[in-house]
């Protein structure tokens, strides 16, 4: 459920101005914004010079509108430069921080070796997920073998009986696969 059916918009900012908000309409794929899929769009605009940020989001409409965005890569046909904007976050009113739009700064992938990019992803993932571990939250881990839950309670108690029902008010699910 990390794809979206909502209308997605992008604004690209460079040293010479911005594109304004543009809806991403025609992907090279039959259905756009599916889980695990890379979509490619052509966006016509005046040359903006060196790019430094984008704002990307969706209108929040439609069933299954939450979206997990890994990254955006913009290829400049004039300079033949690639600009990478790492996200690794949800654009979803019910996930992460509830925002359906993100402002992303350019990441110069050419100067980021693989290890540094991996560390950046780890830091961004923790920034997006740490709210789940705040005081007072109950975590439930689903056990695929027993089809029950292991609960970590705010008072440090662990309920490992595999209860199949959600008996807590505010619960965050984490699916673990072995």
UniProtKB/TrEMBL annotation:
SUPFAM superfamilies for the chain: Lipase/lipooxygenase domain (PLAT/LH2 domain)
PLAT domain segment(s): 1-105
CDD domains registered for this protein in UniProt: PLAT_repeat
Superkingdom of source: Eukaryota
Coiled-coil residue windows: none
Alphabetized InterPro entries for the sequence: Inner_ear_hair_cell_LOXHD (IPR052970), PLAT/LH2_dom (IPR001024), PLAT/LH2_dom_sf (IPR036392)
Name the record gives this protein: LOXH1 protein
Lineage: Eukaryota, Metazoa, Chordata, Craniata, Vertebrata
């Amino acid at each position: 459920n990390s794809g979206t059916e909502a209308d997605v918009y992008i604004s690209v900012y460079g040293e010479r101005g911005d594109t304004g908000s543009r809806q991403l309409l025609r992907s090279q794929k039959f259905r756009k914004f599916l889980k695990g899929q890379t979509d490619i769009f052509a966006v016509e605009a005046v040359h903006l010079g060196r790019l430094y940020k984008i704002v990307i989001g969706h209108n929040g409409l439609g069933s299954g509108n939450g979206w997990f965005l890994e990254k955006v890569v913009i290829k400049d046909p004039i300079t033949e430069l690639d600009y990478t904007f790492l996200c690794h976050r949800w654009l979803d009113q019910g996930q992460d921080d509830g925002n359906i739009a993100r402002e992303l700064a350019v990441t110069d992938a050419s100067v980021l070796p693989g290890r540094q990019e991996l560390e950046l992803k780890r830091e961004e993932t923790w920034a997006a997920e740490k709210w789940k571990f705040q005081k007072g939250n109950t975590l439930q881990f689903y056990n695929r073998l027993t089809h029950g839950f292991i609960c970590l309670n705010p008072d440090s108690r662990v309920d490992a009986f595999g209860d199949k029902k959600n008996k807590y008010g505010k619960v965050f699910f984490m699916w673990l696969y072995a």
